[in-house]
Design goal:
Layout lengths: L1 E5 L4 H12 L3 E6 L11 E4 L13 E4 L11 H23 L9 E4 L1 E2 L10 E2 L9 H14 L7 E7 L1 E3 L4 H10 L12 E2 L1 E3 H13 L5 E5 L5 E2 H12 L9 H4 L8 H4 L3 E2 L2 H5 L9 H9 L1
Parallel strand pairs: 1-2, 1-4, 2-3, 4-5, 5-8, 6-8, 7-14, 8-12, 9-11
Antiparallel strand pairs: 10-13
Helix pairs in contact: 1-5, 2-3, 6-10
Length: about 300
């Protein structure tokens, strides 16, 4: 199977490449810097001109690329967060539409996020839950709508709604030094839910979305046991052998520009009903075991 991956140079992309190679995939990495090699990729292709992207001979395309959401939400940053996802997804679907029917990828796994659900307090969320409110919910809604246009081309579309990805890089790379200095603490009241997944489980889940022709539409790409922010803080501090002395008051987070505080204060209690129905097994279903594996 020949599979293209956008955003392949990130730590999630690297994990997917590793899992795909174990299953015999030939991997094509798409990059805006195609001269830069991505470890494990068999071929590099350019995303410099999305209107002329080459999707030829691909059996599947996994689309992860997008502007990071962790930088300050200025007006320009929010525009780029939205446009980098929606516009590039539209470009990829247009590239498929320009191909001879039957020659474009058979499956399009186009990432989304649990932000789709907005802030839903303690309400458990399965894939059939309605879209929420707020900036991230709008981004995810428009992102998924752009990918859905590929259905008309006969392409199977999967939208993994990804939670907080736990790996040695990414979220934990920023959090680790704070907690090691005993400066960590809950965010606001700490009651907001955090739906998370170990990066290795996420890589296997996305590969399964490619290979299983029965998986389609929205898929909650999270572990089956979400935790509150208060619980996450206590578990991570315990794993590192530190104390979490310094909670961050809600009013400070609300001072962040562009409503960015909602990123830390809103929560989604997400349940992976679809993947459970398909018999997917998580190697790291429990938060503490996942964190200990990563911090060993």
């Amino acid at each position: 199977m020949k599979v293209g991956i956008t955003g392949a140079s990130g730590f999630l992309g690297s994990a997917i490449i590793g899992e795909g190679k174990r299953r015999g995939w030939t991997v094509v990495a798409f990059s805006r810097s195609p001269t830069k090699q991505v470890e494990g990729a068999d071929e590099m292709r350019s995303l410099t001109d999305p209107g002329a992207v080459d999707l030829g001979e691909l059996d599947a395309l996994i689309h992860l690329a997008g502007e990071p959401i962790s930088a300050l939400w200025t007006k320009d940053r929010k525009r780029r967060i939205l446009e980098s996802r929606v516009d590039l997804t539209n470009d990829l679907v247009e590239a498929m539409a320009g191909m001879t029917r039957g020659r474009c990828p058979a499956v399009f796994v186009s990432a989304s996020a649990v932000g789709y659900y907005g802030n839903r307090a303690d309400e458990p969320m399965e894939e059939d839950a309605d879209v929420g409110f707020g900036f991230l919910a709008r981004v995810c809604r428009d992102w998924e709508a752009a990918s859905a246009k590929a259905w008309k081309l006969g392409v199977r579309v999967v939208n993994p709604r990804i939670g907080i990805v736990l790996g040695r890089d990414g979220f934990l790379k920023r959090l680790r030094p704070i907690f090691r200095l005993c400066l960590g603490g809950r965010l606001g009241p700490g009651r907001q839910w955090m739906s998370w997944i170990h990066v290795d489980d996420l890589a296997r889940l996305l590969v399964e979305c490619v290979e299983n022709p029965s998986i389609r539409g929205a898929v909650n790409a999270v572990a089956p046991n979400p935790v509150t922010n208060r619980e996450f803080t206590a578990v991570y501090a315990r794993v590192l052998g530190r104390k979490a002395w310094f909670p961050v008051p809600s009013f400070l987070l609300k001072l962040l520009p562009g409503g960015m505080g909602r990123l830390f204060l809103d929560g989604q209690r997400v349940k992976p009903a679809v993947m459970k129905a398909f018999g997917f097994t998580w190697c790291h279903a429990d938060l503490e075991s996942a964190l200990r594996a990563l911090e060993a």
